[in-house]
Amino acid sequence: AATDPNQITGKKKGSEERDYQFGRLFGVLSIVRSNILVLQGDENGYEETKQVATALAMDLSELFWLKKWMREPAAHGITTLVRAFSEKNIAEHKEVAKHLVENVVIPKLLLVGSNGEESESDHTRLVGSFCAEQLGVALF
C-alpha cells in the first residue's frame, strides 16, 4: 500500500484516528490532482505509473471500507483517480484506467456487498446489497 495505516503505534483517540485516515485520503488526492502520475507516465513509461496508481487505488478501497463516513470521500477519490487516466484518448492512459477498474474497483468495491464481505455471483442480489457510494462508483 502507498500509505501504511499500521505505522502509528499505541492507543489513539477516535479523533486522532479520524484525522489520520483523512490525512491518508488527502495525501492520495493531492497526488492524483497534481496530475504527476499522468505526467510521469508520459515521460518514463506507464509500468511504474500503473503500479503506483494501483497502490493508491488499493489505499482508497481500504479507506472506503474503514468507516461508513469515509465511503463518500474515498469513492470520490477512486473516481477521480480513474478519471485522471480516462479523460484523454491516449492508449497508455486508457490501459492504466482499465487496469485500475479490472484489478481494484471491481474486485475490491463492486464484487462485495455493502457489509464489505464478498458476495455470491448472483448479480441482482449483489447490486441490491450495494450502499449508495458503491452504486455511484458502479455508475461512474
How is this structure best summarized?
The chain has 140 residues and is mainly α. Helix content is 71%, strand content 0%. The chain starts with 13 loop residues before the first helix and ends with a helix.
Q: What is Rg?
A: 16 Å
Overall geometry comes to globular
Termini separation comes to: 24 Å
Largest sheet: none
Helical amount: over 70%
Strand content: under 5%
List how many beta strands DSSP finds: 0
- Total of DSSP H or I helical runs spanning 4+ residues: 7
* Structural class assignment: mainly alpha
Low-confidence stretches: none
What does the average pLDDT come to?
85
The succession of helices and strands, N to C, reads HHHHHHH
Describe the structure.
The chain is 71% helix and 0% strand. The two termini are 24 Å apart. It is an all-alpha fold and 140 residues long. The mean pLDDT is 85. The chain has helices spanning 14-34, 36-44, 47-66, 71-86, 91-110, 123-128, 132-139. The chain contains seven helices and no strands.
